Amino acid sequence: MTAPGDLKFAAPPLPVDEAALTALRNRLAGRPIWLAASTHPGEETLVFAVHRQLAAAYPGLLTIVAPRHPERGARLAEEAGALTVARRGAGEGRPDEGIWLADTLGELGLWYRLRASSLSAAACCHRAAARTRWSRTAGLRHRRRSHTAIS
Predict the structure, then answer these.
(1) What is the residue extent of each domain of the chain?
(2) Do 62 and 93 touch, CB atoms closer than 8 A?
(3) Backbone angles phi, psi at 75, to 5 degrees
(4) If exposure means fewest CB atoms within 10 Å of the residue's CB, which of 16, 44, 66, 105 is most exposed?
């Protein structure tokens, strides 16, 4: 008997609404964006802290946080403190800057394709390999870097 390997590599690319992707790309053109995808409790604290530091160097920075469990959206909005936050799951439009909580289901394909830079918030722990597979299932190539530039 042979094991088929990781089924995530055999899966088709994550779905995306092409019209929504095009509309968001047009609205966000030229903006610095980064994505923290499929985050777990506690990781967002790090993301919010990094956002605060990067925002000084990248005016208008939009950080998209897609929590692994979208029902945590309201709590994460509170945890962001003084940062500008909009919750997609609550029907709020994207903020001009700050944090956009992608607290929805079925849109990871959109977020992976939209972002210029992304962070696997668990890059230093066991979940990093799984997130690399998820970005690959969005049809994206994964590149290891010691740092990520925002563009």
Answers:
(1) 13-137
(2) no
(3) -65, -40
(4) 105
First to last CA, the chain: 47
Amino acid at 82: A
- Tens of pLDDT along 106-143? 999 999 998 766 655 444 444 544 444 444 445 554 44
| 3-state SS, residue 25 | helix
Asked whether 32 and 116 are in contact (CB, 8 A), the reply is yes
- Tokens 């918030």 locate to 121
Separation between Cα atoms, residue 55 and residue 105, nearest integer Å? 27
Strand arrangement, sheet containing 33-39: 85-87, 98-101, 62-67, 33-39, 117-119
In one letter, which amino acid is 51?
H
| CATH number among 2.40.50.140, 3.20.20.370, 3.40.50.2000, 1.20.1730.10, domain 13-137 | 3.40.50.2000
* Beta-strand relationship, 62-67 and 85-87: unpaired
Rounded-to-integer distance, Cα 81 and Cα 92, Å? 17
Interatomic CA distance for residues 5 and 49, integer angstroms: 37
